[in-house]
Amino acid sequence: MKQRSWNRRRGGSVLEMSLLMPWLIFLFVGAYDWGFYAHALIATESAARVGALYGATASNGQVSATTACTVALDELKIASNLTGLTTCGALPAIVTRSCTTAAGLSAVLIEVTYQSLQLIPIPGLLKGQSTF
Protein backbone atom coordinates (compact mmCIF):
# COMPACT_ATOMS: atom_id res chain seq x y z
CA MET A 1 0.00 0.00 0.00
CA LYS A 2 2.82 2.41 0.81
CA GLN A 3 4.41 1.77 -2.58
CA ARG A 4 1.27 2.96 -4.40
CA SER A 5 0.98 6.27 -2.53
CA TRP A 6 4.63 7.02 -3.25
CA ASN A 7 4.07 6.45 -6.98
CA ARG A 8 1.14 8.87 -7.02
CA ARG A 9 3.18 11.73 -5.49
CA ARG A 10 6.26 11.13 -7.55
CA GLY A 11 5.77 13.84 -10.22
CA GLY A 12 4.50 16.55 -7.86
CA SER A 13 7.84 18.29 -7.43
CA VAL A 14 8.49 18.32 -11.17
CA LEU A 15 5.08 19.90 -11.76
CA GLU A 16 5.66 22.53 -9.06
CA MET A 17 9.08 23.38 -10.44
CA SER A 18 7.76 23.69 -13.98
CA LEU A 19 5.04 26.07 -12.80
CA LEU A 20 7.43 28.21 -10.75
CA MET A 21 10.33 28.30 -13.23
CA PRO A 22 8.99 31.26 -15.32
CA TRP A 23 8.64 33.34 -12.15
CA LEU A 24 12.12 32.42 -10.97
CA ILE A 25 13.59 33.37 -14.35
CA PHE A 26 11.62 36.65 -14.32
CA LEU A 27 12.98 37.49 -10.85
CA PHE A 28 16.53 36.62 -11.85
CA VAL A 29 16.39 38.79 -14.98
CA GLY A 30 14.92 41.68 -12.98
CA ALA A 31 17.65 41.46 -10.34
CA TYR A 32 20.31 41.24 -13.05
CA ASP A 33 18.98 44.36 -14.83
CA TRP A 34 18.63 46.32 -11.59
CA GLY A 35 22.24 45.49 -10.79
CA PHE A 36 23.43 46.92 -14.10
CA TYR A 37 21.29 50.04 -13.68
CA ALA A 38 22.55 50.60 -10.14
CA HIS A 39 26.15 50.16 -11.29
CA ALA A 40 25.64 52.67 -14.11
CA LEU A 41 24.08 55.19 -11.74
CA ILE A 42 26.90 54.86 -9.21
CA ALA A 43 29.54 55.23 -11.95
CA THR A 44 27.83 58.36 -13.32
CA GLU A 45 27.55 59.99 -9.90
CA SER A 46 31.16 59.17 -9.17
CA ALA A 47 32.34 60.68 -12.47
CA ALA A 48 30.45 63.91 -11.77
CA ARG A 49 31.86 64.05 -8.23
CA VAL A 50 35.44 63.52 -9.42
CA GLY A 51 35.00 66.19 -12.09
CA ALA A 52 33.65 68.64 -9.51
CA LEU A 53 36.50 67.88 -7.11
CA TYR A 54 39.02 68.43 -9.88
CA GLY A 55 37.32 71.70 -10.79
CA ALA A 56 37.40 72.82 -7.16
CA THR A 57 41.16 72.26 -6.94
CA ALA A 58 41.95 73.88 -10.31
CA SER A 59 43.50 77.33 -10.25
CA ASN A 60 40.82 80.06 -10.36
CA GLY A 61 38.19 77.44 -11.18
CA GLN A 62 39.20 77.34 -14.83
CA VAL A 63 38.79 73.83 -16.16
CA SER A 64 38.97 73.14 -19.88
CA ALA A 65 36.31 70.96 -21.48
CA THR A 66 38.99 68.48 -22.58
CA THR A 67 40.33 68.12 -19.05
CA ALA A 68 36.82 67.69 -17.60
CA CYS A 69 36.14 65.02 -20.22
CA THR A 70 39.36 63.17 -19.46
CA VAL A 71 38.80 63.21 -15.70
CA ALA A 72 35.18 62.02 -16.01
CA LEU A 73 36.01 59.28 -18.53
CA ASP A 74 38.80 57.99 -16.29
CA GLU A 75 36.19 57.51 -13.58
CA LEU A 76 33.59 56.06 -15.98
CA LYS A 77 35.97 53.35 -17.21
CA ILE A 78 34.27 50.90 -14.86
CA ALA A 79 31.06 51.21 -16.91
CA SER A 80 30.39 48.39 -19.32
CA ASN A 81 30.13 50.07 -22.71
CA LEU A 82 32.82 52.76 -22.51
CA THR A 83 35.97 50.85 -23.34
CA GLY A 84 38.03 52.81 -25.84
CA LEU A 85 35.84 55.94 -25.69
CA THR A 86 37.95 59.12 -25.93
CA THR A 87 35.41 61.88 -26.65
CA CYS A 88 32.57 63.26 -24.58
CA GLY A 89 30.33 64.80 -27.20
CA ALA A 90 27.89 61.99 -27.91
CA LEU A 91 26.20 59.12 -26.12
CA PRO A 92 27.01 56.82 -24.35
CA ALA A 93 28.91 59.51 -22.38
CA ILE A 94 28.47 63.27 -22.56
CA VAL A 95 30.47 65.51 -20.23
CA THR A 96 29.80 69.25 -20.15
CA ARG A 97 31.35 71.90 -17.96
CA SER A 98 30.52 75.49 -17.25
CA CYS A 99 32.53 77.99 -15.26
CA THR A 100 30.82 80.92 -13.55
CA THR A 101 31.68 83.61 -11.05
CA ALA A 102 29.34 84.46 -8.20
CA ALA A 103 30.11 87.09 -5.56
CA GLY A 104 33.75 87.13 -6.63
CA LEU A 105 34.16 83.36 -6.27
CA SER A 106 34.60 81.02 -9.19
CA ALA A 107 32.46 77.92 -9.55
CA VAL A 108 32.61 74.95 -11.89
CA LEU A 109 29.62 72.84 -12.90
CA ILE A 110 30.36 69.40 -14.35
CA GLU A 111 27.45 67.46 -15.86
CA VAL A 112 27.84 63.82 -16.84
CA THR A 113 25.26 62.00 -18.96
CA TYR A 114 25.62 58.26 -19.41
CA GLN A 115 23.49 55.86 -21.42
CA SER A 116 23.40 52.31 -20.10
CA LEU A 117 23.70 49.09 -22.00
CA GLN A 118 20.75 47.59 -23.84
CA LEU A 119 19.36 45.10 -21.34
CA ILE A 120 16.28 42.90 -21.17
CA PRO A 121 13.20 45.15 -20.86
CA ILE A 122 10.59 44.30 -18.24
CA PRO A 123 7.27 45.86 -19.26
CA GLY A 124 6.04 48.33 -16.69
CA LEU A 125 9.23 48.18 -14.59
CA LEU A 126 12.42 48.54 -16.63
CA LYS A 127 12.87 49.77 -20.14
CA GLY A 128 15.68 48.39 -22.25
CA GLN A 129 18.05 51.33 -21.85
CA SER A 130 18.33 54.24 -19.41
CA THR A 131 20.11 57.57 -19.53
CA PHE A 132 21.47 58.99 -16.27
Protein architecture, described:
The protein has one domain. It has helices at 2-8, 12-57, 65-76; strands at residues 89-90, 93-102, 105-114. The chain is built from three helices and three strands. The mean pLDDT is 82. A three-stranded antiparallel β-sheet has the order 1-2-3. Helices cover 49% and strands 17% of the residues. With 132 residues, it is of the alpha+beta class. Helix 2 (12-57) packs antiparallel against helix 3 (65-76).
List keywords for this structure.
132 residues, 49% helix, 3 helices, single chain
SSE layout and pairing:
Elements: H1 2-8, H2 12-57, H3 65-76, E1 89-90, E2 93-102, E3 105-114
Antiparallel strand pairs: 1-2, 2-3
Helix pairs in contact: 2-3
How would you sum up this structure in a few lines?
This protein is α+β, with helices and mostly antiparallel strands and 132 residues long. 49% of the residues lie in helices and 17% in strands. A hairpin with a 2-residue loop joins strand 2 and strand 3.
* Structural category: alpha+beta
| Main beta-sheet annotation | 3 strands, antiparallel
What is the first-to-last residue Cα distance?
Answer: 65 Å
The parts where pLDDT drops under 50 for at least 5 residues are: none
General form:
rod-shaped
The succession of helices and strands, N to C, reads: HHHEEE
Q: Please give the order of strands in the largest beta sheet.
A: 1-2-3
Helical run tally: 3
Number of strands: 3
How many structural domains are formed by the residues? 1
Mean pLDDT: 82
- Gyration radius, to the nearest Å? 25 Å
In percent, how much strand structure appears in the residues?
15-25%
Helix % is 40-55%
